[in-house]
Write a structure and sequence with these properties.
This protein is of the alpha/beta class. It has ten helices and 15 strands. The protein is about 35% helix and about 25% strand. It has a nine-stranded mixed β-sheet, with helices on both faces. It has a four-stranded mixed β-sheet with strand order 3-13-10-9. About 40% of the residues are buried. Bound molecules: S-adenosyl-L-homocysteine and N,N-dimethyl-L-histidine.
């Protein structure tokens, strides 16, 4: 049984390990003080941000979710056999836990561990999943997946498999993605694995459209960071003083999302001020795209190997099963 966990039902447990406010403030302030101002994309996700992301997944331009869902659906038997029936299935950045539903009946894990920074959204998603799958043990953990995963020590023993779909790995800078994979490798032990969804490098047109949707949902998602900064940093960012800008940086092979300052402004933040020149940007997210080869190189640098990979016919998205090298 998990320490400090609150029991939401017989089968659904919830544990809150959200980083404390002073730590969060220091981290955000450091990003606002660099030459290219940046904020970690985890700050998109409160209840509203998580809902906006769910809307993004259903947009006609946003191909990654429906492509990955098709890959998981078509290869469910093979993927479940790779992961191993009865494994402990851990999903960092689980969001609405939609994709795990594709695998659950076939995989029959010993337990499912959704892990997310968005506390309330995680809790409702876990309860809903629990009501749909009454046989499933769910240990929901609100935590930053870039920090320690020591809570896993309190969970049932057995093969551990990390499920990291959605190309969330693409939101980590490559050096941090390698560190993340090293943590996964350490955590999975000798016989564990990881099932990772990765968006592929492709035409700029397709990528630019996916991050500049015609309904403006991605723009709203991007601007939600300002609302989060206002709450967490006691700041006064004005939404209509910034606009959404996203583009594929072909050289770096990443989508960059920025908020562009529409004027010269001095924004009250954390008891001080943050200065923006006209046109200066706050870099809110990168979304790296990989070829199977460049992803294999990343994985190998972390002491892992691609044991099996699946792609759709148009090679828009890839899913990889990783094991220790
Ligand atoms: N796995 C789901 C959701 C992906 S969206 C899918 O494939 O559809 C990315 C998710 O990661 C969001 O739910 C967000 O809240 C969460 N997230 C982002 N950064 C995080 C961090 N540092 N720690 C924990 N969760 C994070
Ligand atoms: C969660 N993550 C993989 C999404 C992505 O595509 O990088 C977040 C997102 N940002 C804008 N649209 C979707």
């Amino acid at each position: 049984m998990m320490k400090q966990a609150s029991r939401k039902s017989d089968k659904v447990m919830f544990r809150n390990e959200h980083p404390d406010l002073s730590h969060s403030r220091e981290e955000i302030l450091a990003g606002l003080q660099t030459t290219q101002k940046t904020v970690n994309p985890k700050w998109f996700y409160d209840e509203y941000g998580s809902q906006l992301f769910d809307q993004i997944t259903r947009l006609p331009e946003y191909y990654p979710t429906r492509t990955e869902v098709a890959i998981l659906t078509e290869n469910c038997e093979q993927i479940s056999a790779r992961c191993g029936h009865g494994c402990l299935f851990i999903e960092p950045g689980s969001g609405s836990s939609e994709k795990v539903r594709i695998l659950l009946d076939t995989l029959q894990p010993s337990a499912y561990v959704p892990m997310d920074i968005s506390a309330d959204f995680l809790q409702s998603a876990a309860l809903e999943l629990g009501s749909e799958y009454p046989w499933l043990d769910i240990y929901a953990v609100c935590a930053d997946f870039n920090q320690g995963w020591s809570f896993l020590d309190d969970l049932p023993a057995g093969k551990r498999v990390v499920f990291y779909p959605g190309s969330t790995i693409g939101n980590l800078e490559p050096n941090l993605a390698a560190e993340f994979l090293i943590r996964v490798r350490d955590m999975m032990g000798e016989n564990g694995g990881a099932l990772v969804g990765v968006d592929t490098h492709k035409s700029s047109d397709r990528l630019n459209a996916a991050y500049n949707d015609s309904q403006g949902v991605t723009a709203e998602f991007n601007l939600n960071v300002l609302r989060r900064l206002n709450e967490v940093m006691d700041a006064e960012f004005e939404e209509d003083s910034f606009h959404h800008h996203a583009f594929y940086n072909t050289e770096a092979r990443r989508i960059e999302m920025h908020l562009v300052s529409e004027r010269e402004q001095s924004v009250r933040c954390n008891g001080g001020t943050v200065e923006f020149a006209l046109g200066e940007t706050l870099h809110t997210e990168s979304s790296y795209k990989y070829t199977p080869q460049s992803f294999a190189a990343l994985v190998e640098a972390a002491g892992l190997k691609l044991a099996q990979s699946w792609m759709d016919a148009d090679e828009l998205f890839s899913v990889h099963y990783l094991e220790r090298a």
